[in-house]
Design the sequence.
């Protein structure tokens, strides 16, 4: 189990995943249980509405194109996001995530980035910079607070 000081690594990965999913499955339920970045293409292919599938695929391609500008690798980073969530965990509730973010100053991108990069194990630094950059980019572009989910 992750410590309170390291859970933020999994939480950042989880928040990025939720932002991407919410942008691809726009208008859909915020309850995207079972949907992950790693299985998103499969979920699109098995989507119940045949007519929506091409649109969902385009939305995924659009988001991944934007994330690619931040260094995102669609063949590598979805699996890493899943690994970080599993290894470090997430806050048990959204309320706890938001509370911890406010208390520690993580609502500001620079403060969050400094905290994460100061604490993260060295083998994750490069990829965590990419994940944070993607998270901040989407948050700003779509005017979403950092800890929405």
Sequence:
């Amino acid at each position: 189990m992750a410590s309170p000081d390291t859970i933020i690594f999994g939480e950042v990965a989880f928040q990025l995943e939720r932002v991407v999913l919410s942008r691809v499955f726009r208008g859909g339920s915020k309850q995207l249980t079972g949907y992950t970045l790693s299985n998103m293409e499969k979920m699109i292919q098995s989507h119940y509405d045949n007519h929506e599938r091409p649109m969902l695929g385009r939305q995924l391609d659009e988001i991944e194109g934007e994330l690619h500008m931040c260094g995102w690798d669609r063949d590598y980073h979805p699996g890493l996001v899943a690994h970080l969530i599993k290894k470090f965990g997430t806050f048990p509730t959204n309320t706890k995530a938001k509370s911890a973010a406010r208390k520690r100053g993580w609502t500001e991108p620079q403060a969050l980035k400094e905290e994460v990069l100061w604490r993260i194990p060295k083998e994750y630094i490069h990829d965590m910079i990419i994940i944070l950059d993607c998270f901040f980019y989407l948050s700003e572009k779509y005017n979403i607070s950092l800890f929405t989910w």
Q: What stands out?
A: The radius of gyration is 15 Å. The chain has one domain: 7-141. The chain is about 60% helix and 0% strand. Residues 99 and 124 are 25 Å apart (CA to CA).
